[in-house]
Design goal:
about 200 residues; mainly alpha; Glutaredoxin; Glutathione S-transferase Yfyf (Class Pi), Chain A, domain 2; 4-stranded mixed β-sheet; 8 helices; about 5% strand
């Protein structure tokens, strides 16, 4: 299988790390949706990262759907989503918060970097920032209440896309989310960064 996308995308890295944890081999083709637009479009005209190209040429383009499909390719022992309903609910809540944090971070980055400053809408930015802070606060609360990985961790799909949601956001919008704002999430980031699958796909 081929994974199209760069590891500075939180969504591409989430898939790469998860596939590694499931012991599913994948060839990474680090094409950017910005810098390599034509090359990316030649593979997937929708130009959405990540794109997973299967051996038969069929493509999967949504990271959550990619990982749902990936679990059909491996044994139950390698699944990252927990089997127990209560653990699954917990895992899905945390993953949802992490993905929301990444989405809001990307929205802020696009607004700041791609839109001329005179055309940036401050009330919209303030709303996104409030959503981002709320997501990080809730994530930090989740991990502050636990002494170990949530929902049996090794069986739980990594909430970390790139550098973990905390590291990713602090790298992109350090003026909004600080280390002090989410200390438990920062500690999780350091633990995740030491895992072999994260080391294999550095962000």
């Amino acid at each position: 299988m081929r994974l199209i996308g760069t590891l500075d995308s939180p969504y591409a890295r989430r898939v790469a790390v998860s596939l590694a944890m499931m012991d599913l081999p994948v060839a990474l083709e680090p094409l950017s949706v910005f810098r390599d637009l034509d090359a990316f479009a030649a593979i997937n005209p929708v130009v959405k990262a990540p794109t997973l190209v299967l051996d038969d040429g069929i493509q999967r383009i949504d990271p959550t759907l990619i990982l749902e499909f990936a679990e059909r390719l491996t044994t139950a022992e390698r699944h990252l989503t927990p089997a127990a309903t209560a653990d699954h609910v917990t895992a899905q809540r945390v993953i949802g918060l992490a993905l929301a944090a990444c989405e809001k971070t990307m929205q802020i980055a696009y607004e700041r970097r791609l839109r001329p400053i005179e055309k940036q809408h401050q009330p919209w930015l303030e709303r996104i920032q409030a959503q981002l802070i709320a997501a990080h606060t809730l994530l930090d609360t989740c991990y502050a209440e636990e002494d170990d990985w949530l929902a049996g961790a090794v069986h739980c799909r990594p909430t970390s896309p790139r550098r973990s949601p905390g590291q990713f956001t602090r790298a992109i919008v350090p003026d909004i989310v600080t280390l002090e704002r989410a200390p438990a999430l920062a500690a999780l980031s350091l633990r995740a960064a030491a895992l072999p699958a994260f080391l294999a796909f550095p962000g």
